[in-house]
Design brief:
alpha/beta; binds S-adenosylmethionine; Rossmann fold; 9 helices; 7 strands; globular
């Protein structure tokens, strides 16, 4: 690892004004609240890392925040960062775990979010199945990578350090293909979903309806009519 990359990585886990994506997390949290409208109930952030997205969601909602990461060191990082932002430590619970086998019961979570973790997953169908399993009926998931649509593309491009784009290109590129995501969602037998693509990122939104019905604009019917936001 180059010295610069090690420095950049360290900076990624300390969420303060100098974080390379400091202006992004508040905008992404606002987008999630504006678009999904979930402001209370249990919220799980998968691959939470620094906890930045959860911290910003915590500032503008009454969500019960839970960060999950495969890396046990994230526990300390999340609580240090929460403290930095004046969020009471007890607002965020931490779970060490793997997206491929979430340590949570069925139907537990109202809102699942995950940003920037998807490139590292080994089996996306299993991951999507797990996410769908833990959603409450009426719950929604927003999973993917990139920036908020409230951010300008120029600003987003400026924020990305070189190694984020160049590192491990094959593994990173795979999940960016619509066909790859569609296949994983179908394998996972998730029914209500859409893929949101644009200059800002690629996201999968999944909704678990209370009935088996497919909401207009979602599900298999949406495979050919998915819009960019
Ligand atoms: C690039 S970081 C993104 C962190 C944070 N979500 C953000 O947007 O700043 C990816 C995170 O995903 C976690 N991760 C990777 N594979 C995982 C898995 N299988 N299950 C859960 N977390 C995972 C990593 O430990 C890391 O913290």
């Amino acid at each position: 690892m180059t010295e610069q990359k090690a420095k950049d990585l360290k900076a990624f886990y300390r969420y303060d004004a100098d974080h390379p994506f400091a202006s992004m997390y508040p905008l992404l949290a606002k987008q999630i609240v504006d678009d999904l409208g979930v402001t209370s109930g249990p919220c799980l952030d998968i691959g939470t890392g620094s906890g930045a997205l959860l911290i910003e969601l915590g500032k503008i909602t009454g969500l019960e925040l839970m960060g999950l990461d495969i890396n046990p060191e994230a526990r300390v990082l999340v609580s240090e960062n929460a403290r930095r932002h004046g969020l009471p430590e007890e607002r965020i619970a931490f779970l060490q775990g793997d997206v491929h086998a979430l340590p949570l019961p069925d139907g537990d979570i109202r809102l699942v979010v995950s940003r920037g973790s998807i490139p590292f997953w080994d089996d996306h169908a299993t991951a999507f199945r797990e996410i769908y399993r833990v959603l409450q009926p009426g719950g929604v998931a927003f999973v993917g990578g990139g920036f908020s649509r409230y951010q300008s593309k120029e600003e987003a491009d400026r924020m990305r350090p070189d190694w984020v784009r160049k590192d491990n290109p094959e593994k990173r590129a795979r999940w960016l293909h619509r066909e790859f995501l569609e296949e994983a969602l179908l394998d996972a037998t998730v029914t209500n979903w859409r893929i949101i693509e644009g200059g800002y990122g690629t996201w999968v939104e999944m909704r678990k309806t209370s009935q088996a019905s497919v909401t207009a604009g979602y599900g298999e019917g949406a495979r050919h009519a998915m819009s960019d936001l």
